[in-house]
Amino acid sequence: MTSLLFAIISLLYASVGQAGGTAFLSLMAFFGMSSTETRPTALGLNIVVAAYSTWLFNRNKVVDWTILRPLLFSSMPASLAGGLIVLEEHMYKTLTGLVLLLASAVMIMQRGRAVDRVGEIPLRETVSIGAVLGLVSGLTGVGGGVFLAATLIALNWASPRQTVALSPPFILANSTVGFVGALFTGQFPSPDLALYAIFTLAGAVAGAVIGLKWLSQTAIRFILAAVLLVAGIQLVRA
């Protein structure tokens, strides 16, 4: 049952360029999984989903590496630093939930016609934002794609469709670094990680194709906002 739910979550999140770490965390908390297992397990599943989505989008030449490189340059070391910090469980859930609710509000308030990039993206601001997103990602244990998507769209640095392709490699890089950080703190994933990974990969295959071929930019934005809202409420109430 748990594996099937992971697959459904993966499909829904992958359709909007996300890996599902926030929902994975909520689901594992609902089923009573130990708090020491939830963060590394979610990160491990993020790696599986994001690796496939990254490969697919890069093969279709829709990843704008010009935007992504400076973000990764600063986000990865910051994510490692955040991953080495272990927050008290209630503080961790509340912080993560509030950040997701804020991201959802930003996405909902975005109006007007979605466009591609507007002008050049300042390098200093990009590096600074990457560091902040990486630190938050490491602290919360999610890949950071939800934060990246909300930020890029709010600043009009990328269209909703572009963020679908930019989020997976960002999630993959930061989840990998965060996973290493979690291991160093003595947190290890569930023994069933391999089984969960098989089901989440199946969901990611279907979801990535749906997002790449059939969803409009408006649909992507509102689906992502809904995902953020639900996950944020779940974590704040946990």
Short description:
It contains ten helices and no strands.
Structure in words:
The protein starts with a helix and ends with a helix. Helix 1 packs parallel to helix 9 and helix 4 runs parallel beside helix 6. It is built from ten helices and no strands. The radius of gyration is 16 Å and the shape is globular. By secondary structure, it is mostly helical.
* Fraction in helix: over 70%
Question: How many strands?
Answer: 0
Amino-to-carboxy terminus distance: 21 Å
How many helices? The count is 10
Q: Which structural category do the helix and sheet elements fall into?
A: mainly alpha
Question: How can the largest sheet be summarized?
Answer: none
Mean pLDDT: 82
Compressed to H and E, one letter per element, the order equals HHHHHHHHHH
What gyration radius follows from the Cα positions, in whole Å? 16 Å
Which stretches of 5+ consecutive residues score pLDDT under 50?
Answer: none
Basic shape:
globular
User: How much strand content do the residues show?
Assistant: under 5%
Provide key terms for this protein.
10 helices, 238 residues, single chain, globular, mainly alpha
Structural topology:
Elements: H1 2-14, H2 21-30, H3 35-59, H4 65-83, H5 89-109, H6 123-140, H7 145-154, H8 160-184, H9 193-213, H10 217-237
Protein name: Probable membrane transporter protein
Subcellular location: Cell membrane; Membrane
Pfam family, one: TauE
